User: Which sequence fits this backbone?
């Protein structure tokens, strides 16, 4: 039993220098992941969830850059590694699954070539062993007739099957952490369920931790142990999934949960959060959510809240600050 | 059927569309390939009452959007008919006055609000276009006033008419699309995945707006979506499509409480459950087959746990199911085999 978390991110800042000044896309976020844990990262487009994943695995697109904070994998800094050293971590210790399986596979090589190459890059095995391992991996992710399919090209697979191949690729080198960025968004519901089950099963079997980035709260509810809700480049609320879904503390999470149509069909109207997420060059003072928040008061407009304990989790909201004397539970009906 | 039947505004009967997806002639000759056809929609029959929302759900490639385009006349049907208020659209000459009036009464809202607004036009010109095209207002002031009114209707500011589409967010653009659709005072709106490109909080704004507008103007909606929860929220009746065919039509409540067709049941089980009731989920088998060479008999049989020889041979037709308001196209349901399973 180690005390060191598998992944720990502290005060991470990601900036984009532009002609009109520096935009802060991720503004001091901190979280950690234990071994074998599934952390859901949820938020609307532009909240910074994909950037967080990209920063952890060192794939920020220039001019984006890490401007502060630290990322540690098992206690070892990985944000300051040289590009060559980072390449060895990426793929070997951290695997990645992207949204669109068609663009994350090379159309000119057979999937066998791609998997065998990846295995041989990261593990000291012969080509024959690598081939055996590739077949075993493809069988594990549920591709029928795996041995024959090795010589097939990506376009010969359906979307769901391609995503299975991508998952097999991410797992090639037995990574400790898999970052899955919207792994099911491009898929149909019936296939989506298959892929979620697959991710869940494989990560449980291999004790792999997963950072699951998605905008779909339903996927998080099914899969994750903990969830971080992101808004405007910061974590608004983080905590155990059940807790965040059943008793959200941050008004943004409350609004988000009410805005999702449910299958019970008992909602007459969906909760509406007025307005939209602010643009990066116009993030309001104080709490970034205050112009859209029905419960904002003076302090919210002046001072930016950091994560503070709220129930079983943490929320970045002055309403849960004990100094304010409110519990933040007022509207979580 | 005890209640007095309201007059259906839209009646679709036996509607079908086949696309020719053959290789070029020379390739076919050299490679000795036959012509290939894709039946995107087949034998689609439904009716929508006035003021009602009827939804079509299905996965990609099930033919929902094809049906939407057939209903508004953006695609020509290969078979069947669409009647709006009893007028058969295919029998009318395209330039006739009746057809012109029909077009005014049917409008469409598309999925991608980034692609469906002309980026070179100011918003007021975009919204005024249907007003001018149908000659609903003539003077400049009257048109401007009507545009302002429409913008307010979709909760935008009349001054927003001076801006260009790129100055708006996705949700605001979809509001502009709705304002444009309402400009010709339509009665029937076909909405093809109107919120699929939007974030949940913005989706909620648009769905609420659409319901408010329906109450205010008595609009009839054909609502197309792949998202069962959205459909549940919006529609009174729902049609489930699979590989170009309707496999089940039911009242919204019945469909979710007692899904009949094995495909509908499978879809229901596949939806991630937000309430985390711990309900066990069965993994769904297989994927949608290639529509160019669909399976024989019932096109769902390769994925269906209840399939037998009859299902592999014979195409089931929509028929009344034993319980509730549903009509289902399934041999197993018809023979009562479906209830034996879980």
Assistant:
């Amino acid at each position: 039993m180690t005390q060191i978390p598998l992944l720990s991110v502290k005060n991470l800042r990601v900036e984009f220098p532009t002609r009109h000044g520096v935009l802060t896309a991720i503004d001091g976020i901190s979280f950690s992941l234990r071994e074998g844990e599934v952390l859901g990262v949820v938020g609307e487009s532009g909240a910074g969830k994909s950037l967080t994943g990209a920063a952890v695995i060192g794939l920020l697109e220039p001019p984006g850059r890490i401007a502060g904070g630290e990322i540690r994998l098992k206690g070892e800094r990985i944000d300051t590694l040289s590009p060559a050293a980072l390449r060895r971590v990426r793929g070997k210790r951290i695997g990645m699954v992207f949204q669109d399986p068609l663009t994350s596979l090379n159309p000119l090589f057979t999937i066998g070539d791609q998997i065998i190459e990846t295995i041989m890059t990261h593990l000291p095995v012969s080509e024959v062993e690598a081939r055996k391992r590739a077949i075993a991996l493809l069988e594990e992710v549920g591709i029928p007739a795996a041995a024959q399919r090795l010589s097939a090209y990506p376009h010969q697979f359906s979307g769901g099957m391609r995503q299975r191949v991508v998952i097999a690729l991410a797992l090639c080198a037995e990574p400790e952490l898999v970052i899955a960025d919207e792994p099911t968004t491009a898929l149909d519901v019936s296939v989506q369920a298959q892929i979620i089950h697959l991710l869940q099963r494989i990560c449980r079997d291999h004790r792999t931790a997963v950072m699951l980035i998605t905008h779909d709260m339903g996927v998080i509810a099914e899969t994750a142990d903990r969830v971080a809700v992101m808004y405007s480049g910061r974590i608004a609320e983080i905590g155990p999934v059940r807790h965040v879904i059943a008793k959200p503390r941050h008004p943004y999470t409350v609004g988000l949960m009410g805005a999702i149509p449910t299958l019970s069909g008992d909602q007459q109207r969906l909760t509406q959060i007025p307005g939209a997420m602010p643009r990066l060059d116009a993030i309001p003072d104080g709490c970034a959510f205050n112009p859209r928040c029905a419960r904002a008061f003076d302090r919210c407009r002046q001072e930016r809240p950091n994560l503070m304990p709220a129930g079983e989790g943490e929320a970045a909201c002055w309403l849960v600050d004990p100094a304010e004397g409110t519990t933040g539970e007022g509207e979580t009906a | 059927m005890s209640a007095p039947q309201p007059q259906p505004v839209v009646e679709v009967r036996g509607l079908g569309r086949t696309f020719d997806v053959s290789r070029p002639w020379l390739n076919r000759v050299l490679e000795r390939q036959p012509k290939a056809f894709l039946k995107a929609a087949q034998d689609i029959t439904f009716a929508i009452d006035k003021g009602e929302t009827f939804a079509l759900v299905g996965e990609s490639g099930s033919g929902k959007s094809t049906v939407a385009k057939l209903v508004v006349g953006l695609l020509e049907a290969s078979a069947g008919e669409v009647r709006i208020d009893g007028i058969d659209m295919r029998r009318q000459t395209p330039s006739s006055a009746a057809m012109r009036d029909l077009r005014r009464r049917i409008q469409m809202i598309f999925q991608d609000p980034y692609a469906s607004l002309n980026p070179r036009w100011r918003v007021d010109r975009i919204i005024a276009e249907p007003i001018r095209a149908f000659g609903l207002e003539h003077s400049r002031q009257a048109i401007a006033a009507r545009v302002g009114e429409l913008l307010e209707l979709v909760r935008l500011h009349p001054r927003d008419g001076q801006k260009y589409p790129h100055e708006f967010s996705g949700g605001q653009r979809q509001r502009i699309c709705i304002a444009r659709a309402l400009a010709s005072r339509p009665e029937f709106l076909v909405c093809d995945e109107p919120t699929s490109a939007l974030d949940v909080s913005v989706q909620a704004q648009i769905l609420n707006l659409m319901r408010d507008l329906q109450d205010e103007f008595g609009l009839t909606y054909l609502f197309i979506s792949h998202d069962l929860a959205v459909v549940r929220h919006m529609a009174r009746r729902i049609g489930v499509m699979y590989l170009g065919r309707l496999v089940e039509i039911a009242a919204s409540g019945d469909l979710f409480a007692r899904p009949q067709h094995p495909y509908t049941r499978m879809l229901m089980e596949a939806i991630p459950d937000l309430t985390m009731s711990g309900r066990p989920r069965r993994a769904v088998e297989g994927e949608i087959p290639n529509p160019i060479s669909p399976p024989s008999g019932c096109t769902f049989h390769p994925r269906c746990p209840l399939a037998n020889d009859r299902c592999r041979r014979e195409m089931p037709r929509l028929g009344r199911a034993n319980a509730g308001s549903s009509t289902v196209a399934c041999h197993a349901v018809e023979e009562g085999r479906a209830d034996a399973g879980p």
Summary: The first strand of chain B starts at residue 8 and ends at 20. Chain B has a mean pLDDT of 87.
